[in-house]
Amino acid sequence: MEMNDPLRREEKKETSPDRDESGPSSPEPSRPGKDNLLKRMKKVDPKQSEKYKQRTGQ
Amino acid sequence: MSVSLLGLETEYGIVREDLENSDPVEESMKLLKACPRKSVFGKWAYSQENSHLDMRGFKVGSLAQDEEEDAFCAEDRKRPYSYMDMKCDRVLTNGARFYNDHTHPEYSTPECRSVLSLVAHDVAGEHIVAECVALRNQELKGKPLQVFKNNTDYSGHSYGTHDNYLIPRETPFEDLVKGLLPFLVTRQLYAGAGKVGSENAATQNFQGLQLAQRSDFIETALSIETMTNRPLINTRDEPHAVSSWYRRLHLILGDANMSAYATALKVGNTSLVLSLIADGEKFSELELADPVADVLKVSLDRTAILKRKNGATITALEIQEAYLETAEKSFTEKDCEQDWILVEWKKTLNELRHSPEKLSDRIDWAIKEKLFAEFMQSEGIGWDDPLLKSLDLEYHNLNSDRGLYRGLQQEGDVFSLLSEEEIARAVESPPVGTRAQIRGQAVAQGAENIKSIHWTGVEFANGEILDLTGVIGPEEVEEILNSNKQLA
User: Fold this and answer.
1) To the nearest whole angstrom, how far is the Cα of B285 from the nearest Cα of chain A?
2) Dihedral sign, CA of A46, A48, A51, A57?
């Protein structure tokens, strides 16, 4: 598969690991995206992991 | 680079939430049967498999599993299905193998030449599996089927994500082991997917987030086993290539990463270290006194002090920095992708040392650490709350409406390594210049023309056998594509 030059990704400032030296910007506490994720997390069944039974794999 | 080909195998977790006793055999079979992709179905050449040869020069009679799995398998034999029925093998037009392995849907990427190509194909696997889940849920008239890209059920059952490297046979296996073990013990600093709690009997009271999902399950340094007595380095000697020239290093200690960036670092850094070892680097000063114990020690405490064989102490981060320093001396400014790997490896280690919170958009355990810390604070709960394990599981859910990593992607809160176009291309098309291109083209031309298929070849319906055992480089691939009438 022909991949694009991975270095081009450095130009995507908003998502690149190479963003400015101050590091990743934290999501604003009240912004809609954060609320959406919080809602998603609150919907998780607390017993989900207990009910999740798998068989041993490799 | 001494690594000729790369591959990733991922076993997915699967559950029917509307059933009290979800049956993974039935659900995995129905998932594979729902796959809409053009593929060769049920024709995998198991006669070409040989998983009982050991790199240390002997052959084992059988591979082991625990008593619980023995009992499950005894029940499986009473089912009205053959072994091949349960496997549901598919080979796709992108050269990948998609099938059921030990009751888990498994996506094995096609063989790739570059790290970014491999990562694209690993993510393509997520998309193909999710597509099958959606179709199966349409049949079920709801969304009761859920599939997870993770490695544990939090009750002591683990399933694997294996990274594979085709390397020269001439590198002595003992050199590989000595040079690689300290690296493998510590690569979880960036390759760990994070796990709430512990499933290891010795540390079962641990509360919090450990670095890796698999570290609880590593019991020995070297072993041919994969379902019990799991090793740091698997010694299965099955190169799927000319065995006098190559060995396939089959690593089973790794995690299933949701972050494509973390997968790229894991595979990219491992490839560079393998090349250093092939070039004669020994890393003797880094040898650990007890690497097996250290893998869990580091997972539970990334700043843990480790004892070396020479009596000195060292941290996991210092070990990674030593490997990076050697890699920079050998590989800087020789290849675009290698330079990208070196830059990102260095940046990650620097941030681990000075500001680990900066990793919370691209390293899975760090993403979870930030996400769960914020949630615990807002809800007034701690790591001992059982909800945390359920949140941890849901992070890995492939369902775009439920998965927490998927939610972070939708909000742009995690680093996006691949474009949608790159992923879409990997879903449909094989990597160029590897034998997967030949396999993919054979599948695309029609399953009816194929009698059996394997990593090492294709047997066509007319009896012609296309042996790909020795086809590794792009020149050999091109020669076959240009000369074989079945592929014309």
Assistant:
1) 32
2) negative
Interface contact flag, A55 B157, Cβ < 8 Å:
yes
- A47 and B114: CB-CB below 8 Å? no
The per-residue pLDDT string of chain B (488 residues; one tens digit each, 9 = 90 and over) reads: 789 999 999 999 999 999 999 999 999 999 999 999 999 999 999 999 999 999 999 999 999 999 999 999 999 999 999 999 999 999 999 999 999 999 999 999 999 999 999 999 999 999 999 999 999 999 999 999 999 999 999 999 999 999 999 999 999 999 999 999 999 999 999 999 999 999 999 999 999 999 999 999 999 999 999 999 999 999 999 999 999 999 999 999 999 999 999 999 999 999 999 999 999 999 999 999 999 999 999 999 999 999 999 999 999 999 999 999 999 999 999 999 999 999 999 999 999 999 999 999 999 999 999 999 999 999 999 999 999 999 999 999 999 999 999 999 999 999 999 999 999 999 999 999 999 999 999 999 999 999 999 999 999 999 999 999 999 999 999 999 999 988 98
Q: Pick from A15, A17, A24: which is nearest to B344 by CB?
A: A17
Query: Which residues of B does the annotation mark as catalytic?
Result: 101
| Residue ranges with strand state E in B277-375 | 305-307, 313-315
Q: Hey, how many other C-beta atoms are within 10 angstroms of the C-beta on B293?
A: 15
List CB contacts (< 8 A) between B378 and chain A: 38
Complete domains list, chain B, with CATH:
5-356+412-428 (3.30.590), 357-410 (no CATH)
